[in-house]
Design goal:
This protein is about 20% helix and about 50% strand. It has about 120 residues and is α+β, with helices and mostly antiparallel strands. It has an 8-stranded antiparallel barrel. The longest helix has 19 residues.
């Protein structure tokens, strides 16, 4: 099961880099409560939860900038795109939506639930 979660995280990362991070920012997001770096702490699939450090060699982060740009870093592989606010959190390049509760966010993609915390 650990291997399946690792494969799904890899699929998520590849999809994010190939499809989501293609646009530039430009929108003023300086007043947004979501600006900052969000670090993935765990991932779950089919009821099995694992820490990101057990799945990846390095960090998995989204940095939401006040100009509407976003940088994603997965184990040192970086890409950029844009982000926007939603009613319940933030959306990255109209592809991935996170629900935020304080300094914790939950992002779901193809059955994988990723928990993030703001640094």
């Amino acid at each position: 099961m650990k291997k399946r979660i690792k494969v799904l995280i890899t699929v998520f990362a590849v999809a994010a880099m190939c499809f989501a991070f293609t646009a530039c920012g430009g929108e003023d997001m300086s007043g947004s409560p979501y600006v900052g770096t969000w670090t993935a702490t765990s991932a779950s699939y089919a009821g099995m939860e694992m820490s990101i450090s057990d799945l990846l060699d390095g960090e998995f982060t989204f940095t939401l900038e006040d100009n509407g740009k976003c940088e994603m870093n997965i184990s040192g592989e970086k890409d950029t795109g844009k982000w926007s606010e939603t009613d319940s959190g933030f959306k990255i390049a109209d592809e991935f939506e996170a629900t935020v509760d304080g300094d914790t966010a939950v992002l779901e993609y193809e059955g994988v639930t990723i928990k993030l915390e703001r640094k």
